[in-house]
Write a structure and sequence with these properties.
The complex is a heterodimer of chains A (392) and B (376). With 392 residues, chain A is α+β, with helices and mostly antiparallel strands. Helices cover 46% and strands 20% of the residues of chain A. With 376 residues, chain B is an alpha+beta fold. Chain B is 53% helix and 21% strand. The chains are: A alpha+beta (392), B alpha+beta (376).
Chain lengths: 392, 376
């Protein structure tokens, strides 16, 4: 007996099931997309390519709090295969009563690693004392305009200073939520002297250099420091006094920038897999309602199902027919849930609610999360319908 | 009658699974809140480790920047008379065009009342002598390197179109913005800018044993056209970071509450379907619509209440168990999730509200059905 063309399920009742499936899919998608958006954004914070290497303080608990000798940036610039060596200081600060991150950079080196589009004003120069360029998103958030003078209050340091906005940039990355200042301004706010930076980012030619090669160079420097003062390219154009300082090689780490950021999250057990598992757990917790909705649907149609049985439809036929009919709805519900989740997250993002550590979470439609949403919803409906339909 | 009706509804086979459905949703909220609470408390504990200085600056209320601020320098005397105040340092900051043999640059000039105290407070070191009078200035290390100024050099400062010759008598490093500035005595700054008695700001510190509400008392004591800013803000920074996490959590929670609304709708629909015979019988026996409506509503409130209590317990216990498991795998990660009473109450009330909202339509439908319409 074929039941496919026989419409015995009432549309309004199916819609109730479909709406709860949609909401369950939406909850899963919101959780997975936002968590993965945070994870991907954090990992890409210092650069995504395999050719960007981070030299960092291996003892630091966060990527923002370590310190490495600044002069290593100058030494690295001499290594074959290194096309840019960007020393950076990341410091928290408060502008217009909002907490933000301020990054001290050497603009010439920094722009070799990150493409910044200046949408208004001019690019920063290392000699631009008391000037800054600000990310477009941050400008919108704090209502900052080109040419504004803004006081900056310190967090790590007992510092207050005034900066003038020289330009507004766009990078389509998390950097759009930051203020970029000359390296020494970052050092003031981080309360470190001119010989230390938070991280050194190095751009390498993979054919000629590697993180291991850079590590070997640093190890050599740690065991036999070069004697001549200021050896290497003068990255700060003599603006800041860069003193040579001794260090232990165990305190310095060299790794691809993305792996370096990932290792910080790994340290706390935060991986892409654990975030997906967490999202699945939330789905499972929310799925009790969907199971209840499936059971209710069958219960509401028990008379129709009994009639089908009485006219000769086997349990297997009824089950298969119910599965086919509800499966189509589950696919539609999953898709709708994903669309709703995307719209919700986009709205959250637009109003600035999707922020972690003052950086906006740029959520992405992760293919794995999308396929998981379809699979989980279909599985859930399949199991609950099968279990309910066989009960007489 | 109503108690009997409620009892009859509550004994339906779907009740335990309905309670569980709500409980699991509440458990998601409780566990997520408890984990975020732990993260936020850790962040706040970290902010406590930062050595916070007790320096404040007084600026004019309407000014948007330090250079545009104008504060009556007489307030210095007033501040010095306050017992809780330690150091008071009025400063005049203005822009000037600096011309040397190597070119020109717009720089900040800072007039300071007590240059020795200024360097002491910043832990700075001065090479040469401190500036005295309007013809002398000390130059910060960064500025000196940018414009190639050396000790003893003569520089030209143009302020408001008027040129002044100044000799560099000292270079200094403070690791502050002053390293990119020129420092002159405050009288010279007043003189150069023709703004006698108008400081840009007054910097002051509180004594270590100052009363907790010293700043509050001071604000009441001062004129209304000035404002006081604490210059180091680690607590505010952490509070803002935590607020960002919480606002995301609240928005995410609203998605869970929407699911609670839908789940309650399903639970009520299921109840009405399961109890259709009983409800039809009650209508036939003359029960009022109100009784049927309130019975379904009371059932839903009870289910939501039990589900919330169970969910809160499950969420907290689950988070604690998960954190213990994490500690076994990664001994360095010490997590202690906790839920505040206020949060637990908020979750409970919002779940109840969502459930009432979700069950209203099925409850009304069942109440308005005549016994003829009720499927038996």
């Amino acid at each position: 007996m074929r039941l496919i063309g026989f419409r015995y399920l009432r549309r309004q009742r199916i819609l109730t099931l479909a709406s709860i499936l949609t909401l369950t899919s939406m909850l899963f998608s919101i959780t997975a997309f936002s968590f993965l958006g945070f994870y991907n954004g954090f990992n890409a914070y210092l650069g995504e390519g395999e050719d960007i290497v981070a030299i960092y303080d291996s003892g630091s608990r966060t990527p923002f709090s370590g310190l490495v000798p600044m002069y290593l940036a100058e030494r690295m610039s001499l290594v074959d295969g290194v096309s840019a060596s960007s020393p950076e200081v990341i410091a928290p600060g408060v502008i217009k009563d909002e907490s933000i991150f301020i990054r001290g950079i050497v603009p010439e080196q920094f722009s070799k690693l990150n493409t910044l589009t200046i949408v208004e004003g001019d690019m920063l120069d290392l000699a631009d004392v008391n000037f800054a360029i600000v990310g477009k998103r941050l400008c919108e958030r704090l209502s900052l305009k080109f040419g504004d003078k803004v006081p900056v209050l310190g967090v790590f340091a007992e510092q207050y200073l005034e900066i003038q906005i020289k330009g507004i940039f766009e990078s389509h990355s998390t950097m759009d939520d930051e203020v970029l200042v000359p390296l020494y301004v970052g050092q003031w706010l981080r309360a470190v002297d001119y010989s230390c930076v938070t991280v050194i980012r190095v751009k390498i030619d993979k054919g000629e250099a590697s993180p291991n090669k850079l590590y070997e160079e640093i190890a050599k420097e740690a065991s036999e420091p070069s004697t001549s003062e200021g050896e290497g390219e003068n990255l700060t154009e003599g603006i800041t006094p860069v003193a040579k300082m001794s260090f232990r090689i165990e305190d310095v780490g060299v790794e691809e920038a993305q792996k370096f950021m990932k290792s910080h999250l790994d340290r706390y057990g935060v991986t892409k897999e654990t975030l997906l598992i967490l999202s699945i757990v939330i789905f499972i917790f929310a799925s009790a309602s969907a199971t209840s909705a499936s059971t209710t649907l069958i219960h509401q149609h028990k008379h129709e199902i009994e009639i089908l049985r009485s006219v000769g439809a086997s349990d297997k036929t009824i089950k298969a027919d119910l599965l086919v009919k509800v499966f189509v709805w589950s696919l539609v519900s999953s898709a709708l849930g994903i669309i709703l989740a995307t719209a919700t997250l986009m709205a959250f993002e637009r109003v600035g609610y999707l922020q972690v550590l003052s950086h906006r979470i740029l959520f992405q439609l992760d293919p794995l999360a999308v396929s998981l949403s379809f699979t989980l919803i279909s599985l859930l409906v399949g199991i609950s319908i099968t279990r309910s339909a066989v009960k007489r | 009658m109503s108690l009997l009706t409620f009892k009859m509804l509550f004994q339906k086979s779907g009740t335990p699974s309905s309670i569980l459905a709500i409980a699991l949703l509440v458990a998601i909220l409780a566990s997520m809140n408890s984990i975020i609470n732990h993260i936020n408390s850790q962040a706040e504990a970290l902010s406590g480790l930062v050595n916070i200085g007790g320096t404040y600056v007084m600026l004019s209320k309407e000014s948007s920047s330090i250079t545009s601020s104008e504060v009556d320098a007489q307030l210095t005397r007033l501040l010095r008379s306050v017992t809780d105040v330690n150091y008071v340092l009025p400063q005049k900051i203005f822009k000037a065009n600096l011309t040397t043999n190597n070119g020109g640059e717009t720089v900040l000039v800072r007039g300071v009342e007590d240059i020795d105290l200024f360097f002491n407070l910043r832990g700075g070191c001065l090479d040469g002598a401190k500036a005295k009078g309007r013809g002398e200035a000390c130059v910060g290390e960064i500025l000196a390197r940018i414009v190639f100024i050396d000790l003893g050099d003569q520089i030209n400062l143009t302020i408001n179109g008027e040129a002044h010759k100044v000799r560099v008598v000292g270079t200094f490093t403070t690791m502050t913005q002053s390293d990119s500035e020129l420092i002159v005595p405050i009288e010279a700054a007043y003189n150069l800018t023709s703004s006698e008695g108008k400081a840009s700001m007054i910097e002051f510190t509180l004594k270590a044993d100052a009363e907790k509400d010293a700043i509050q008392n001071l604000v009441e004591f001062l004129p209304k056209d000035v404002r006081i800013i604490k210059i180091q803000q680690p607590k505010k920074f952490i509070q803002d970071m935590n607020a960002q996490t919480l606002s995301f959590l609240n928005l995410w929670s609203s998605a869970v509450y929407v699911v609670v609304v839908a789940a309650s709708h399903v639970v009520a629909t299921r109840l009405v379907t399961e109890a259709s015979y009983d409800l039809a019988m009650l209508r036939a026996l003359g029960s009022k619509r109100k009784l049927l409506f309130t019975s379904v509503l009371t059932y839903m409130i009870t289910v939501a209440l039990l589900g919330s209590i169970l969910g809160l317990a499950m969420g907290i216990v689950g988070a604690q168990m998960a954190s213990t498991a994490v500690r076994w795998v990664w001994p360095s990660i010490d997590t202690n999730p906790f839920l505040e009473i206020g949060q637990a109450l908020r979750i409970l009330l919002l779940t109840l509200a969502s459930s009432i909202f979700g069950c209203t339509y099925p409850a009304l439908r069942s109440a308005f059905k005549t016994y003829m319409e009720q499927p038996l």
